[in-house]
């Protein structure tokens, strides 16, 4: 079963007046993984879709949704999948791709059938991002050994982390979708600090590997009008083009970033001095 909801875009001046509950309703995605369901959130920020597939007792086919007005989900879209659980299988037009923990798969425009499956006794947890596409590119699996790995941060500033670029234009040909995974080193809690905006692309963050009972405060908003949203494990948050996107946890964790928009340049960002945040 595939379920979906629609989220509208927001002007930053409106967001300044939102209550905590309104911020959470508009930007936080809480229920990504339900037994034997695919849950999708269709955002008007670059028409980006955030979702989760959780096959427990049966295979799950990615079905089209009413908002797409398309016969198949990927008629005009591309898809990125990262498995954050046990080993699982993604079947793409009859061809099976086995994804281990933290491995990724890019699925191109024009694909007719995508099915998410268990593999043996493991329980996969498939995190999904999708963006509109103008051209067909081939499906490609990206293992952690294929990633571009960058070491960032400093323990002095509690932001030492390992950046894994997975579905990026230097590894996989895509139309606009870009995805990667950042792992915080134990004892470090800050991600994406110093912060930045990039008006040419929106972004979504998905947090996982967070210890039970711990929390993450995700910071968003214009640099001089920041807001925060407290988040739990396996939750995602939408980040508009005009917003910073940074977080701090009460323990270390891992997060997946997904982007879509004007360009594919990972380094395209407007950096903000932490001393200028308000």
Automatic annotation (TrEMBL):
It is an enzyme of class 5 (isomerase). Keywords: Isomerase, Metal-binding, Zinc. Zn(2+) binds at residues 196, 198, 203, 245. The keyword Glycosyltransferase does not apply. GO terms for molecular function: 4-deoxy-L-threo-5-hexosulose-uronate ketol-isomerase activity; zinc ion binding. It comes from the Bacteria. GO terms for biological process: D-galacturonate catabolic process; D-glucuronate catabolic process; pectin catabolic process. Its cofactor is Zn(2+). It catalyses: 5-dehydro-4-deoxy-D-glucuronate = 3-deoxy-D-glycero-2,5-hexodiulosonate. Pathway: Glycan metabolism; pectin degradation; 2-dehydro-3-deoxy-D-gluconate from pectin: step 4/5. Binds 1 zinc ion per subunit. Belongs to the KduI family. HAMAP family: KduI. Catalyzes the isomerization of 5-dehydro-4-deoxy-D-glucuronate to 3-deoxy-D-glycero-2,5-hexodiulosonate. PANTHER family: 4-DEOXY-L-THREO-5-HEXOSULOSE-URONATE KETOL-ISOMERASE (PTHR38461). This is 4-deoxy-L-threo-5-hexosulose-uronate ketol-isomerase. It comes from Salinimicrobium sediminis. The gene is kduI.
């Amino acid at each position: 079963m595939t379920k979906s909801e629609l989220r509208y875009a927001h002007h930053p001046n409106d967001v300044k007046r939102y209550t905590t509950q309104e911020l959470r309703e508009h930007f936080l995605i809480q229920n990504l993984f339900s037994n034997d369901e695919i849950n999708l959130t269709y955002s008007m920020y670059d028409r980006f879709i955030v979702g989760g597939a959780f096959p427990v007792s049966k295979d799950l086919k990615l079905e089209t949704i009413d908002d797409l007005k398309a016969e198949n989900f990927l008629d005009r879209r591309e898809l990125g999948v990262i498995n954050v659980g046990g080993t699982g299988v993604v079947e793409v037009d009859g061809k099976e791709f086995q994804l281990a923990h933290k491995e990724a798969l890019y699925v191109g425009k024009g694909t007719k059938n995508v099915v998410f499956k268990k593999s043996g006794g493991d329980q996969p947890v498939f995190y999904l991002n999708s963006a509109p596409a103008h051209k067909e590119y081939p499906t490609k699996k990206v293992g952690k050994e294929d990633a571009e790995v960058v070491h960032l941060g400093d323990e002095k500033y509690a932001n030492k982390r390992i950046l894994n670029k997975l579905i990026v234009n230097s590894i996989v040909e895509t139309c606009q979708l870009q995805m990667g995974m950042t792992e915080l080193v134990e004892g470090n809690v800050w991600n994406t600090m110093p912060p930045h905006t990039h008006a040419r692309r929106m972004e979504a963050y998905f947090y996982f590997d967070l210890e039970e009972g711990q929390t993450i405060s995700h910071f968003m908003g214009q640099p001089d009008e920041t807001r925060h949203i407290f988040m739990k494990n396996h939750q995602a948050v939408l980040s508009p083009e005009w917003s910073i996107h940074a977080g701090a946890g009460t323990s270390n964790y891992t997060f997946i970033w997904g982007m879509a928009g004007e360009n594919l340049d990972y380094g395209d960002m407007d950096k903000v001095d932490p001393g200028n945040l308000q």
